[in-house]
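Bumping with the actual sequence this time:
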Amino acid sequence: MKIIDSTTYFEEDLMMDLRFNILDPYVDEFIVSEARFSHSGKEKEIKFDKKKFSKFEKKINHIILEKEPNNIIKKDKLSYVEKRHNSILRIKEQRNHISKFLSKYSPEDFLIYSDNDEIPDLKNFDLQKIKKDVVIFKQKIFYYKFNLILPGIDWFGSKACKIKNLKTVDILRNSKNKKYAFYRIDALFSDIKHQSLQVVQNGGWHFSNLKTHEDLHKKYLNDENHSEYEALNLPIERVRQNIENWTIDYDHLAKKESQEKFKKVKLERIELDILPKFIQDNREKYIEWIIK
């Protein structure tokens, strides 16, 4: 039984370097899906180069999505809702592109999918012993630096299943992190509600927004939530101030449709002992991403 780690890529070499180094002892192969367009629809050059990660080059499968989805909305001026609709379709297409390259694997092999800044902790968890249909990793979330944590928030990012149980990668990604009882009829007819589910406690790390304020501004204008960021019309200086002040402009506990979600939330500095051992052992290499 093989374990295949899969993710999407924009311009996140720092995260990819971490991902490969942390997961290499536990993963047989990596799949990196890159598109020729951003989630906002802008054409882009292919930037991922597995030769930069020569230690892992033989284990990396770099796949390229050439075209946008056929069903995106195309017109000169898009509404906020239409921009969001298109972004969701683009990221869905990029994730599902991974499925086209799984035929060489056994149905019994495990596929892990994460966004590239979500890294599952496999040190004390053996996927090969799992009998459940779906595995979800409960992770801690960090912003800007490795040791700036968003307290009180659980992040269910990395998800896994055997290839024989995979419908699409996007469906796996959207799986609910709740185990549903056998009598729940809605779960029987749902692709994302599962009765055979294991949630991994202490399941890893979500290192969000480890970029300079200039690169973060660029990311915000091109990622899945770009329409929301554009609507806020925040100056790039606001991004720099947030990094310096250890704050974010988003309350994860607020209801999605509420304007209350756009408010300052304070991050907390933590010690390095809950971080991956690779970061602890290489703190000098990543010193600019660690708050002293």
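The tokens above came from a reply further down the thread. Residues 3-126+160-193 form one domain.
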